[in-house]
């Protein structure tokens, strides 16, 4: 396990983007696992800049996002598809057919989940998975007490997660209570993992994830067992370590 403590959000974002960029430079057809939320926004901005400056080429890169809300269409501004297009994909030269997110509107969710796993496998598996961490220790939308062996599946979001996500919606009622998420097993299958965390609100959960006991009550604690895991956390998020 590598733990890189940096000064602030900007430094975290730059370092993360550098790692993703080297992954792509060394292997132009890399398969990336991507996250949404506030944390990776700065990383996406830096990667966009690297692309604009001609340093990174996304032509052969494939991406698989961790999760998507159940019941939200791609065109819904709150969907993760929309987020990824707005904040990253529309600014770089990734090919549309290389972008993958679970389809939150799929008629047969079970089939959608099985197919998502198959697509990851067909792409050769994930080379580098980017993760944020929820205040309750969730990674993807694997909430506390979900089985570690889970693969892509439909999850019921925690009350706390619904509340935390409500900042992006007009009211709490509008926040979806379900999502399709890669499972812990899917995430642990990635060859390399990069978890990013910034700010004091993440300090306690970062401590539990890195130093605490490995338990499904803190889903991120399983990452202690991954052979190639790097945490980039700023001073505030590292303040309990
Ligand atoms: C997002 C995801 C979530 C977030 C987590 C942290 O695709 O899977 O696990 O990474 O909720 O969110 P932020 O970065 O907004 O604090």
Automatic annotation (TrEMBL):
Pathway(s): Amino-sugar metabolism; N-acetylneuraminate degradation; D-fructose 6-phosphate from N-acetylneuraminate: step 5/5
Protein name: Glucosamine-6-phosphate deaminase
GO cellular component: cytoplasm
Alphabetic keyword roster: Carbohydrate metabolism, Hydrolase
Annotated CDD domains: GlcN6P_deaminase
PROSITE patterns assigned: GLC_GALNAC_ISOMERASE
Classification via Gene3D superfamilies: 3.40.50.1360
Reactions the enzyme catalyzes: alpha-D-glucosamine 6-phosphate + H2O = beta-D-fructose 6-phosphate + NH4(+)
Active site: 67, 136, 138, 143
Domain (Glucosamine/galactosamine-6-phosphate isomerase): residue spans on this chain: 17-224
NCBIfam families associated with the record: nagB, PRK00443.1-4
Entry annotated with the keyword Metal-binding: no
InterPro entries on file: Glc/Gal-6P_isomerase, Glucosamine6P_isomerase, Glucosamine6P_isomerase_CS, NagB/RpiA_transferase-like
EC number(s) given by UniProt: 3.5.99.6
HAMAP family hit by this protein: GlcN6P_deamin
UniProt GO MF annotations: glucosamine-6-phosphate deaminase activity; identical protein binding
Native organism: Natronincola ferrireducens
